TrEMBL record:
SUPFAM superfamilies: Acyl-CoA dehydrogenase C-terminal domain-like, Acyl-CoA dehydrogenase NM domain-like. It holds the Pfam family Acyl-CoA_dh_1. It comes from Novosphingobium malaysiense. This is Acyl-CoA dehydrogenase. One of its GO terms (molecular function) is acyl-CoA dehydrogenase activity. Residues 245-392 form the Acyl-CoA dehydrogenase/oxidase C-terminal domain. GO terms for biological process: fatty acid beta-oxidation using acyl-CoA dehydrogenase. Belongs to the acyl-CoA dehydrogenase family. GO terms for cellular component: cytoplasm. InterPro entries: Acyl-CoA_dehydrogenase, Acyl-CoA_Oxase/DH_mid-dom, Acyl-CoA_Oxase/DH_mid-dom_sf, AcylCo_DH-like_C, AcylCo_DH/oxidase_C, AcylCoA_DH/ox_N, AcylCoA_DH/ox_N_sf, AcylCoA_DH/oxidase_NM_dom_sf. The keyword Oxidoreductase applies. Residues 133-215 form the Acyl-CoA oxidase/dehydrogenase middle domain. Transmembrane segments: none annotated.
Length: 403
C-alpha cells in the first residue's frame, strides 16, 4: 500500500518511520482484537478493551503518533500519512489515540488553551489515559443547533467568577465514560454580543445528565452518541477556552482539521476493506472463472482503486492548504464531500463483490460500510456542504459581475 506519494518530500523521515510503525502495529496487534467480545450495548469497544490496546500502543511507541514527545504536532500532510495507516482497522484509531472526537479536541486545546488548561486537560488526552467529548449539537425537537450553529439554544451567563450553563445537547460522541468535556453555549452577556463561549469541564459532572444513548448505525466509538441535559452546570471562569463570545471562531479552528482527519481514518478503513474484497474476488470462483475475471466484479474493484487514489489526492491537497496556516474551511468542505461519497462507493462495492459474506461480521467490510454511511452525515452532511459551496459560487459570480 502506498499513501500520499504525490509529494514525498512533504513527509519527514520521522513521519515516514512513525507511519510504518503504526501500520505494522495495526495489522499485527490491533486486527486480532476485531473479534474481541468486549463491546457495549451498541457494539462499540469497551473502555477496558480500548485501554488494553493503548497500553500495547504505548509499549510499541505508537500512542498519539501525530504529536511528538515535545508536544509539537506533525504537519497536516504528515498527520494524513500516519492517520490513514491508523485507520486500517476500525479499532486502530482507538488503539493509537488518533480517533474522534479526541484528536480534534487535542488540536483545539493545543491551539487555544492556556498553559494551565493544557496541563490540566490536554496532557491526559495526549497520554491516552482519558477520553473527551465535544458538546455542540442540540436536539431537533428542541429547535436547537445542528448543522446551523447559529440556532444554538444552550446558554451561559456570568455568576461571579463562574459561568452557569443550561441547555440540551445530542449526538455527543463519547460522552459516557469521558473525563474531559468541551461545552459550547450561546452567551447571554451583552459584552459578548450574542457570541458563543467554550468551556473545558471535568467529567462526569452531576449537572450533566445523560438522557439517552441510542443505538446507531455506526459502532466504532466508545460511549455512543448521547443526548444530555445541562442543568445549571457551574464552571469556573478560568476554565473558559479562549475569550468570551469567541466560541464560533474557535469552532472553525477545530472544524477543518477534524473534517480532514475523519477523511484520513476512513480512507484507511476503506483501503483495508478493498484489500479484503480483492482477496475474496481473486480466490472465489463462479461460472467457471475467478470472480475478478467477471467484468461486473473486476470493474467495481477498478473503480475502488481509482477512488482511493482520488481521495488521497484530495486529502493531500487540503492538508497542504491547512499547512499554510489557512483555516481551509472551503477546502475541507469540498474534501469532506468528495472523500465521504467516494468511501461510500468503495464500501458498497466491497460488500457487493463479497456477496453474502460481505453482509456478515466474518470480516470488517460490513462494519466499514456502516461507519462510512454515518460519516456522510457527521461533521456536516454532504448536502449542507454543497449548499454552502453553492452560496460561495453565487457570491463570487456577483462579485465578478460588479467588477
Amino acid at each position: 500500500m502506498t499513501v500520499l506519494q504525490t509529494n514525498p518530500s512533504a513527509i519527514s523521515d520521522y513521519a515516514r518511520d512513525m507511519g510504518a510503525r503504526v501500520e505494522a502495529f495495526v495489522r499485527e496487534v490491533v486486527v486480532p482484537y476485531e473479534k474481541d467480545p468486549r463491546r457495549d450495548h451498541h457494539g462499540a469497544p469497551t473502555d477496558e478493551l480500548v485501554m488494553e490496546m493503548r497500553e500495547k500502543a504505548r509499549a510499541a511507541g505508537v500512542l498519539t503518533p501525530h504529536i511528538r514527545d515535545d508536544g509539537s504536532h506533525l504537519t497536516q500532510r504528515e498527520t494524513a500519512y500516519v492517520l490513514i495507516k491508523s485507520g486500517l482497522s476500525p479499532l486502530g484509531p482507538l488503539a493509537c489515540n488518533t480517533f474522534a472526537p479526541d484528536e480534534g479536541n487535542m488540536y483545539l486545546i493545543g491551539h487555544v488553551g492556556s498553559p494551565e488548561l493544557k496541563e490540566r486537560f490536554l496532557d491526559k488526552l495526549i497520554d491516552g489515559t482519558a477520553r473527551s467529548a465535544f458538546f455542540m449539537t442540540e436536539p431537533a425537537d428542541w429547535g436547537g443547533a445542528g448543522s446551523d450553529p447559529s440556532m444554538m439554544k444552550t446558554t451561559c451567563r456570568r455568576d461571579g467568577n463562574h459561568w452557569i450553563v443550561n441547555g440540551r445537547k445530542t449526538f455527543i460522541t463519547g460522552a459516557q465514560g469521558a473525563k474531559v468535556g468541551i461545552v459550547m453555549a450561546a452567551s447571554e452577556e451583552e459584552d459578548t454580543k450574542g457570541g458563543a463561549c467554550m468551556f473545558l469541564v471535568d467529567l462526569p459532572d452531576e449537572a450533566i445528565r445523560i438522557d439517552e444513548i441510542p443505538n446507531t448505525i455506526d459502532s466504532s466509538m466508545p460511549g455512543g452518541h448521547a443526548t444530555l441535559t445541562l442543568d445549571n452546570l457551574r464552571i469556573p471562569a478560568d476554565q473558559m477556552l479562549g475569550q468570551p463570545g469567541e466560541g464560533f471562531k474557535y469552532a472553525q479552528v477545530r472544524l477543518s482539521p477534524a473534517r480532514l482527519s475523519h477523511c484520513m481514518r476512513w480512507l484507511g478503513a476503506c483501503i483495508r476493506a478493498h484489500e479484503i474484497a480483492t482477496d475474496y474476488a481473486c480466490r472465489r470462483e463462479a461460472f467457471g472463472k475467478l470472480l475478478i475475471d467477471h467484468e461486473g466484479v473486476g470493474f467495481m474493484l477498478a473503480q475502488n482503486k481509482i477512488l482511493i487514489e482520488q481521495s488521497e489526492l484530495m486529502i493531500d491537497w487540503c492538508a497542504s492548504v491547512l499547512d499554510t496556516g489557512s483555516l481551509g474551511t472551503v477546502e475541507s468542505s469540498m474534501t469532506k464531500v468528495s472523500v465521504s461519497e467516494a468511501m461510500m462507493t468503495i464500501a458498497d462495492n466491497c460488500v457487493q463483490v463479497m456477496g453474502g459474506t460481505g453482509v456478515t461480521d466474518r470480516t470488517i467490510v460490513e462494519q466499514v460500510f456502516r461507519e462510512v454511511r454515518a460519516f456522510r452525515i457527521y461533521d456536516g452532511p454532504t448536502e449542507v456542504h454543497k449548499w454552502s459551496l453553492a452560496k460561495k459560487i453565487k457570491r463570487e459570480w456577483k462579485q465578478a459581475q460588479e467588477a
